[in-house]
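Much of our argument rests on the idea that a fold can be written as discrete symbols. This step matters because it turns folding into a mapping between discrete strings. The record that follows shows the chain in one-letter code together with its fold in token form.
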Amino acid sequence: MADDGSSEFQAGQTGLIVKIPEAEPAVRAWREQLDPSARAGVPAHVTVLFPFLEESRIDSAVCAAVGEVLEGHRAFEVRFESCGRFPGVLYLFPELDTQFRQLTQAIADRWPQTPPFGGQFTDVIPHLTVAQGQQAAVLEKVEADLLGCLPITARVSSVELMVHDGTGWHERVSFALQ
């Protein structure tokens, strides 16, 4: 989930993601090698908001509030046709990212104490990370391989709350979109 090259996650961290299982055949092997979040149990995904509230603060009322925020959002189709890069990071770019941006904004507006990526970035760009903390030559090799697998189309119908238990990430709750 963290796209800063960090491989250290702490027990009690949480995040909200959209799983993209349709991308797994193309990205799984690369992510397992080159993305610490994959090795920690996070599936191929687009982050909605990370970090979210500490797990100890997430109770039934918080889960109900997340559900209420998300119930106004409809399920949608997403298509990944190209790759993009941040420094040391290769990702798949969703061609129309408006719905992802709206999900992130809705959650961030409701919990302003949890800005996306801790407030590190002015513009949060929705993306599916494939590799991070790598040299350009490695990213070029991965990108060349992925281009043969694109486009990838997926149906987004839920947002998952993921929790780190000190060893790995696990899904705690899934929130359906309309």
